[in-house]
Specification:
Number of domains: 1
Order of helices and strands: HHHHHHHHHHHHHHHHHHHHH
Strand content: under 5%
Oligomer: single chain
Structural class: mainly alpha
Distance between the termini: 27 Å
Shape: globular
Helix content: over 70%
């Protein structure tokens, strides 16, 4: 029990630092040092494992994936591919209300910081036909922007979770994919309930041309998914092939190419990924995770409570997906099962954390969308709270019927 109290103290220190706006990578570094000191890991062993984690193939591969994801996002944004995508959708969709949902959902296929702000002007323009309230516009843009984060293999939190659990990304994606479907259905229920049907506005644009433009605008993303799921290539190799082809096939001046590459490099994210892997390694080597298994059995009630409290509280506090995955998943590894993680328990913890993300007032996408539409946060929460609650309830029922009962 004393070992468990040490872990609780480490988590409380991390939460305190996060609350005081410390950089997440630095917070995790502090957590690594505290774990080493608390569990008597020697200085030599600490630095050996610190450096070992930094230069491990898993860490370097993970950093490579993240850098390539950021590159593709920057490229498609700068080149105007998302604008082409949205214009194509307007011509292809016969149900006008879907214009309020599909653009943020499509843009959500590629992760980017504050990405909801990109689709907000599209939702604003489309919503003029119905004169929708600011909270409803905020919800539609915010909710559909985030339906993919349970399973889409380009999201950092999905990549990090798979790396920490040491399982293929496609396995995690397959298990959590039903929650993307559920989130989409819940969003559509609210959309159709609150927005009346109106006839489609006539357009003279050619259907086939619009369809071609749609696929052409996001071909690098589609190629990555095809290479991963159809040709069974690794995430890193798939991203590398797609990124290389953009450099070969897209006409750009040398200066523009360099500017896009430079703009896409986000060292903060690289440091965060590296610090997560160091934190995980130190927790394992120091014996902190083994001490947790001595206190809580994987099927115990307290363990199930921890699967909710740890990721949810970190997510609600930070509003950052990488934070709740990067900090809570290494701590919860003994409960998941370090060698063969129980995917039901992983699902419950992941969804618990992501519900915290959706409800967090510190979440950048929520803050930016509220600001763009000048929406009242209380009125927006009144719409947001029940679909978020249904998402959590579904995860809880999966845990209840597949593991507890």
């Amino acid at each position: 029990m004393f070992d468990f109290l040490r872990i609780i103290l480490i988590v409380l220190v991390l939460i305190f630092l996060i609350k005081n706006k410390w950089e997440l990578s630095l917070v995790l570094l502090v957590g690594s040092i505290l774990a080493a000191v608390s569990f008597h890991l020697g200085i030599k062993a600490f630095f050996q494992n610190f450096l070992g984690a930094l230069v491990s193939g898993q860490t370097l591969s993970l950093i490579g994936i993240i850098l390539l994801v950021l590159y593709l996002g920057t490229l498609l944004q700068v080149r105007g591919n998302f604008k082409v995508l949205v214009d194509s959708l307007k011509n292809l969709i016969s149900e006008p209300r879907l214009i309020l949902a599909l653009p943020p959902a499509f843009i959500g296929l590629l992760p980017m910081l504050g990405g909801a702000l990109m689709s907000a002007p599209i939702v604003e323009e489309a919503a003029q036909r119905w004169k929708l309230s600011a909270p409803l516009k905020t919800f539609l843009n915010y909710w559909f922007r985030h339906i993919w984060e349970y399973c889409w293999p380009l999201y950092v939190n999905v990549i990090l979770a798979a790396a920490i659990l040491q399982i293929p990304i496609k396995k995690l994606s397959a298990v959590q994919f039903p929650f993307t479907i559920l989130a989409a259905i819940l969003g559509l229920i609210i959309l159709y309930k609150r927005v009346p049907f109106l006839p489609k506005e006539e357009s003279g644009d050619n259907f086939l041309k619009s369809l071609f433009n749609l696929f052409f605008s996001i071909w690098p993303i589609l190629l990555v998914i095809i290479l991963i799921f159809c040709f069974k290539l690794s995430m890193l190799l798939s991203m590398a092939v797609s990124s290389l082809l953009t450099q070969i096939l897209m006409r750009m001046k040398p200066r523009e190419r360099l500017e896009i590459i430079w703009k896409s490099i986000q060292l903060r994210t690289v440091f965060l990924v590296a610090s997560v892997m160091v934190f995980k390694r130190i927790l394992e080597i120091s014996g902190a995770l083994n001490s947790l298994t001595r206190v809580f059995q994987p099927e115990g009630l307290t363990a199930y409570i921890l699967l909710f409290i740890v990721p949810f509280s970190l997510a609600l506090l930070t509003g950052v997906n990488h934070a709740y995955v990067g900090i809570s998943f290494p701590i919860l590894l003994p409960i998941f099962g370090a060698s063969h993680p129980d995917m039901v328990l992983v699902l419950f913890a992941y969804v618990s954390g992501f519900v915290g993300i959706l409800l967090s007032p510190a979440h950048l996408c929520l803050f930016l969308t509220l600001d763009y539409f000048r929406a009242d946060i209380r009125q927006t929460y009144k719409i947001l709270i029940w679909p978020a609650a249904v998402i959590f309830l579904a995860a809880f029922l999966a845990l209840l019927f597949l593991r507890i009962i």
